[in-house]
Design a protein that fits this description.
It is a single chain. The protein has one domain (33-40, 49-309). The protein is built from 11 helices and no strands. The chain has helices at 3-55, 58-87, 89-92, 96-112, 117-129, 143-161, 171-194, 209-236, 243-256, 265-274, 279-310. α4 runs antiparallel to α11 (279-310) and α8 crosses α11 (279-310). The longest helix has 53 residues, at 3-55.
Length: 317
């Protein structure tokens, strides 16, 4: 009888190890499969893809880059909103350029490895903000409200996109929306219970109606800019660009973006969403999305660097 708990613990440990190995295998094989597909397309149909890239109007590249540039700025504003709620007066004393500089570094990191963006953002904010930067414990959960509002937006995109193809069940978007709203409500209750603890400060935006509404508006704004960016590239390449297909591609990019593909996200998403319409053109369109994303991040980071150099912080008295 005394050995039963030990056996149960051993079984649980082995099960956890198997799950960990399975997750590691999926996280490795999925990116390899996507990269392999893109590589296969370039090897077998490289010339048509290059032809599609060279014939795309320049306004497409400029428009997609500018739309993503605005998206980056709005994403930083979303983070600033959460920080204002989390750290109060301390966050108010943060220079806007410090927050933008921290996010610029995170965006640069995210183009290579998306999972590394959050640690980079926190470390850079602590570096640039100095004494004015909130404690790490205060911003530990700061991304949670933003992500959940994004999930709500993604659910709406999925609902519209499901009308274009039958691969998204009609109930799935509403289940996603209901789940996100339920989690938001649970986090609000959690903050009400543990709001006095620093680690819960990142959720305080949910308890502030003014900042909560501002966050929702900013998330809606950068989702709209992402919609515009996607529409521009689809229309420029002559791919289906009605609202349903734009939402389908945008939702697919969000789903594929969860994988560590880096710049391969664009081609993988457009091929997955529109490959049946035109495999070659969808690949080229995705490559333009990825290239414009990197270009916008570089422009954003360069502009923030110039801002900091042109207007340096005043020396302490």
């Amino acid at each position: 009888m005394k050995t039963a708990p030990l056996n149960t613990a051993v079984i649980a440990t082995k099960g956890a190890l198997r799950m960990r190995r399975a997750r590691r295998m999926v996280s490795t094989l999925a990116p390899l499969a996507a990269v392999g597909l893109i590589g296969f397309l370039l090897l077998t149909r490289g010339e048509p893809v290059i032809d599609a890239l060279t014939t795309v109007p320049i306004w497409v590249i400029v428009g997609v880059t500018m739309a993503h540039l605005v998206t980056l700025a709005l994403r930083t504003e979303a983070w600033r909103t959460v920080l204002r709620a989390a750290a109060g007066e301390k966050a108010e004393s943060l220079e806007p350029r410090d927050v933008h500089a921290a996010n610029a570094g995170a965006f640069l990191t995210g183009t290579v490895q998306g999972q590394a963006a959050l640690p980079a953002r926190i470390a850079l904010l602590r570096r640039f903000g100095g004494a004015s930067a909130p404690d790490v414990s205060q911003i530990a959960l700061a991304d949670a409200p933003i992500v959940l509002f994004e999930v709500c937006a993604a659910a709406v995109l999925a609902a519209v996109g499901s009308t274009a193809v039958g691969m998204i069940p009609g109930w799935a978007p509403w289940a996603m929306l209901g789940g996100a709203l339920a989690v938001l409500a649970a986090l609000r209750l959690l903050y009400g219970r543990f709001g006095q603890r620093k680690i819960a400060a990142g959720l305080s935006v949910l308890a502030n109606p003014e900042l909560r509404n501002r966050l929702a508006i900013v998330v809606a704004a950068f989702t709209a800019m992402a919609f515009l960016r996607t529409w521009i590239v689809l229309a420029g390449f002559g791919l289906p660009s009605d609202p349903a297909h734009v939402c389908l591609v945008l939702f697919t990019m969000g789903a594929v973006g969860l994988l560590p593909l880096g710049v391969g996200t664009g081609p993988a998403a457009t091929v997955a969403a529109l490959g049946t319409a035109s495999l070659v053109t969808a690949t080229a369109a995705g490559m333009v999305v990825s290239a414009a994303t990197v270009l916008a991040v570089l422009i954003y980071a360069g502009a923030i660097w110039a801002w900091r150099v042109r207007f340096p912080e005043p020396a302490p008295a």
